[in-house]
Amino acid sequence: MAVRGFTLLEILIAMAIFTMIGLASYSVLTTTTDSNSISKQRIAKLEALQRAMLYMERDILQAVPRAVRIAGEANGKVISGGRDQIESEADGLALVRTGWQNPLLMLPRSTLQAVGYRLQEGQLQRLYTLRPDNVIGAEPKVVVLLDDVQDFSVQFLIDSEDNNNRTLDWQDDYIGSVLPRAIAVEIDSLDFGLIRREFLLASEGGNPNAPD
């Protein structure tokens, strides 16, 4: 009994079917890989945002009325924020915060830390120094917290008097020897849109020249 083989047409049809299956499988695999890569990028950006907010929350809530020397000169100002601060392309913020861990004072630095926030080249940056009062010419250390930031703004909740009535008002710029009641920050990000956080400061007033 003769065995019947496959015709050329049948072989071509089979090859076409297997090619279509291979292309479909490759398309599914590529889509899955791209989706996984996009998910990892979004998770990384979300983690960066959460880390930036944690930095800000910790620094602002631990702000203390401690004046720093600028270029070796005392100025009595414990906080500064708004336009044209610390070379920011938008708003800037500079203050001194406590709570910088130094177990048993083993490290050659204070438990106070001068910190600042600014926007440069689309990056939200955190600046800090090892000591509140640095030697002349010392440059702060810079950490990039977020990329693709379009704008960064700061507002301050300040006591004001109008016709002998004390009120609380938000203002855009503030340089003073007393801490404000609260600080609000707004970040305009390409990835997350406009984000606003408001922080109520625990300590107000105080001696701006308090020792470390």
Automatic annotation (TrEMBL):
It comes from the Bacteria. Gene3D superfamilies: GSPII I/J protein-like (3.10.610.10). The chain crosses the membrane at residues 7-29. It is found in: Cell inner membrane. InterPro entries: N_methyl_site, Pilin-like, T2SS_protein-GspJ, T2SS_protein_J. GO terms for biological process: protein secretion by the type II secretion system. Keywords: Cell inner membrane, Cell membrane, Membrane, Methylation, Transmembrane, Transmembrane helix. PROSITE patterns: PROKAR_NTER_METHYL. GO terms for cellular component: plasma membrane; type II protein secretion system complex. It is a single-pass membrane protein. The keyword Transmembrane helix applies. Belongs to the GSP J family. This is Type II secretion system protein J. It comes from Bowmanella pacifica. The gene is gspJ.
